[in-house]
Structures are given as C-alpha cells and as structure tokens.
Amino acid sequence: MSTFESVIWHVLGYSAMPLIILGGFAAVAAFSIWILALGKDKEL
C-alpha cells in the first residue's frame, strides 16, 4: 500500500466514527421533532 493510500484510509477511518455519531444525533433529533409536530395542536 502506498503512502497516499495509507493517508486516505487513515482519514476515512478517523472521520467515520464522528460522522456516524453526528448523523445518528441529527436523525434522532429530526425524528423527535417530527413526532412532536404530529401531536401539536393545529388550531390557533
């Protein structure tokens, strides 16, 4: 494996976990907002 390939794999490896955590947080937040919006009273 060349140095360039090694650098790419290290960058992908170290960036995967934060992206998974932040993506999961965003998905749970969006789902929670959607659920709360369903129960909101529509009348003003």
Characterization of this structure:
- The protein is an all-alpha fold.
- It is built from one helix and no strands.
- It has one helix at 3-39.
- It is rod-shaped.
- The mean pLDDT is 91.
Task: Offer a concise description of the structure.
The chain is an all-alpha fold. The protein has one helix and no strands.
Break the fold down into its secondary structure elements and pairings:
Layout lengths: L2 H37 L5
Main attributes of the structure:
single chain; 44 residues; mainly alpha; 1 helix
Q: Which strand-content bin applies to the residues?
A: under 5%
Shape: rod-shaped
Class of secondary structure makeup: mainly alpha
- C-alpha end-to-end distance: 64 Å
Rounded to an integer, what's the Rg over CA atoms?
Answer: 19 Å
Number of strands: 0
| Main sheet: strands, sense, barrel | none
Mean pLDDT, all residues: 91
Total DSSP helices? 1
Ranges with pLDDT <50 over ≥5 residues? none
**Helical content (DSSP H or I, runs of 4+):** over 70%
What sequence of helices (H) and strands (E) makes up the elements? H
